[in-house]
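EI: anyone free to look at a 228-residue chain?
SC: sure, send it
EI:
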Amino acid sequence: MATTFDSNVLTMNGVAQPFDYYCVLDFEAVCHQANPGSKRFSPNDIWEIIEFPICLLEAKTNTIIDIYHSYVRPTIQPRLNDICIGITGITQDIVDNSPTFDIVWNDVQKFLVKHSLISLTENKSNLYSFTWITCGNWDLKTMLPLQLKHSGFDRPTFINNFINLKDLYMEYYPSSRIRGMKDMLKKSNLILEGKHHSGIDDTKNITKIAQWLIQNNKILKLTYRAIK
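SC: here you go
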């Protein structure tokens, strides 16, 4: 039987998880420093998302039921730097032949609408409950709001709350020394697949950790709520 979280969103999973779906993501972004070579970030640095991946994890079945993935062409500073290319493996040709963020963001919203996670109309009935999973606070607390501002979009409420899987993992396993995704994979006896710092590969690996937690009867609960 469905349990109601509010008047519009129904939770149907029946497996003790607080959300029906989890949108797992891990951005890749390019940074052009105002002071090149500095070890400190500056408010004048230019950051832009260049890869936007989502794995849609269904709580009821603990499986990935869909994937959204797109590279993104930066517009403020269209040229990637060597540091970014070396870390991410994303080349200039890839982003030059990719859509700009405004197109990608519209496609992301269509992806969420397709799975009845959000509605872009006044009809908010029969939406499934969902939240985001990231490895760290940066993706949704800092980078996406910054990119939305750059691109002239308002910040939607559906990105306000999320799960920082690193924080949640350390809550459940406080004796673990967790610096990031690779440590969680190792602690969970999971294999890192693909290339670290490939957005889509990291997203799939973070999803594996979330699935492992569900398999081990851990509740995937919010760790961050934006101040309204």
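EI: The chain has one domain: 17-225.
SC: 👍
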